[in-house]
Amino acid sequence: MAGTQKDAAQKERQVVLSVHDLTVGFGSTIVLDNLNLDIYRGEILGFVGASGTGKSVLMRTVLRLLPRRGGSIKILGTDYDEATDEQRVALDTRLGVLFQHGALFSSLTVKENIQLPMREYLDLPQSLMDELAFLKIEMVGLAPEAADKYPSELSGGMIKRAALARALALDPDLVFLDEPTSGLDPIGAAEFDMLIARLRDTLGLTVYMVTHDLDSLFSVCDRIAVLGQKRVLVEGTLEDMFAFDDPWVQSYFRGKRARSVVTTEQDATPTAQSD
Ligand SMILES: Nc1ncnc2c1ncn2[C@@H]1O[C@H](COP(=O)(O)OP(=O)(O)OP(=O)(O)O)[C@@H](O)[C@H]1O
User: Fold this and answer.
1) What's the mean pLDDT in 117-131?
2) What is the mean pLDDT of the chain?
3) CA distance 241 to 58
4) Which of 37, 60, 203, 256 lies deepest, with the highest CB count within 10 Å?
């Protein structure tokens, strides 16, 4: 799509998260410097960057778990700095988070983990919270029996799904996924990617996914943003990544591993029948 057409198309779409001139640092070290990023409703944005560039710092700052030195963050059009306490709480319920390694509470069952955000933000009778927890469990493809299991009784893939169910507990608009497929085998990772794409389609979710997984980037992400040099170095489609003249971006998207993923994806794509 030509640049101006693409710009116009993006303007039509609702911005769910808007980060403007964000600066974050620790002591004398600046990690993010005047960073800008928009995420649009219904998209899956894959966020990549070399290790230590600040992907987690950005996610944690947007979630208000880290302070910032400058810039603004708008969620669904509301600026956190200008929001009242009540509005901030309301905004927090619009966000779901799946932290790296799941981060479930080990002393709570899956059902109790899913109900934690409900207890924190909603005032619902236990029977309704149970019903909702079972709904989320089904949504992420876990068997109902998983509800009463503790995290130590679950496989890695089941932990990810349970953590996703907890992220969906409050029916968020935007979910943050921090390396959701890390530690999963390729089949488990592909299934998890498909689950995320299905939830996006059925629930209209917007997904912000920090990932190192080329398969995820190539198969489910609508758009990719690369973090480098303390800012978003490039954002766009895979074609935009291939065309971007930067050594890290080139070696990441055109390297040996990327080529093997592209080849596998092409092999898996059904070709048109010729008459
Ligand atoms: N609480 C903190 N205090 C001081 N420095 C921090 C803190 N959190 C992160 N950093 C530093 O900020 C930089 C970015 O870290 P971050 O964890 O965001 O990287 P990342 O891009 O997520 O890396 P990876 O891909 O390896 O997970 C690193 O240099 C890290 O040491």
Assistant:
1) 90
2) 87
3) 21
4) 37
> pTM (2 decimals)?
0.86
201-220 tens-digit pLDDT: 998 899 999 988 888 888 89
Going from N- to C-terminal start, the domains of the chain cover 43-66+85-94+173-265, 101-171
Going by DSSP bridges, is the β-strand pair 15-26/70-75 parallel, antiparallel, or unpaired? Answer: antiparallel
CB atoms within 10 A of CB 88: 14
Cα end-to-end distance, the chain, whole Å: 31
117 C-beta closer than 6 A to ligand 1: no
What angle separates helix 186-203 from helix 156-167, to the nearest 10 degrees? 20
Q: Is 54 in the pocket of ligand 1 (CB under 6 A)?
A: yes
pLDDT at residue 181, rounded to an integer:
85
Backbone angles phi, psi at 145, to 5 degrees: -60, -20
Pocket perturbation via mutation, ligand 1, pick of 24, 31, 68 by most ligand atoms within 8 A of CB? 31
Q: In whole angstroms, what is the distance from residue 53 CA to residue 36 CA?
A: 15
* CATH class of the domain whose range is 43-66+85-94+173-265: alpha beta
